[in-house]
Amino acid sequence: MAYCIVTLCPAQSYSFKILRSAEDYRNTIRQNADNRLVELKSHIPGLVYDLRYATTHNFMHRMMYPRHTAITFLRKPAAEALATVQKELNREGLGLKIFDAYRPFSVSEKFWELVKDERYVANPAKGSNHNRGTAVDLTLIDLKTGRELPMGTGFDNFTDSAHHSFTALPPQVLRNRGQLKSIMQRYGFNPLDSEWWHYTYATGAFDVLDLSFRQLNKQGK
User: Fold this and answer.
1) Mind giving me the DSSP string for 41-72?
2) Among residues 80, 109, 113, 195, which one is catalytic?
3) Is 214 exposed, middle or buried (0-12, 13-18, 19+ CB in 10 A)?
């Protein structure tokens, strides 16, 4: 088996561009304002965060984001669409809880090292819509209690029971999943068949990013 010193090993090459500098990111915004990543809580009143990858409560069982990360982002059109989803849900006494949204590309590479299954983890060779700032992992909450509506499984459950096609679930769970899917699709988000919580905004082609949350937060100030 061949070994190499980490600092001397060539970086993995990919067939697509990866933006790694704040200047490159700013240049894309100058070209098209829709390329801006919007911090979701600053844009969507009443949104709740449970950013699992900033904790050890995730399938990796370790923090994948810096400790105490309390911000997350989507591209401007996706953030605006999600704000409309939240507004409509609020009329029904419901709201959104966000588990994850923008994800730096280097984190997706680490996920793939552990779970090489494209039903659940994006292959870095293709890039993830999380890396592009167009995917969001979320659920519904009751505004009065703050509790999550029952969805049959937790977040990051890599079993068939998390699939949209899985129907051996209590009627209320199926209704909750259906309600989330219906409203997300109404405002331009497509579901992932194998994960009831994962939705991707369908409009726009965006670059893969590997900028930190701190870098992105600075761009919004």
Assistant:
1) HHHSTT-EE--GGGSS-STTSS-SS-TT----
2) 195
3) exposed
Please write the tens of the pLDDT for every residue from 147-176. 999 999 999 999 999 999 999 999 999 999
Cβ proximity of 142 and 212 under 8 Å: no
Q: Which domains does the chain have, with CATH numbers?
A: 15-219 (3.30.1380.10)
195 annotated active-site: yes
* Longest Cα–Cα distance in the chain: 60
Report how far residue 100's alpha carbon sits from residue 23's, in angstroms, rounded to the nearest whole number.
25
For residues 189-218, average pLDDT: 94
CA 43 to each of CA 26, 40, 121, 175: distance values in angstroms, whole numbers, following the listed order: 20, 5, 28, 28
The two structure tokens encoding residue 1: 């088996």
Among 164, 184, 183, smallest CA distance to 174 is for: 164
Q: Is 143 strand, coil or helix?
A: coil
CA atoms within 13 A on the CB side of 39: 15
User: Which of 183, 162, 184 is closest to 173 using CA atoms?
Assistant: 162
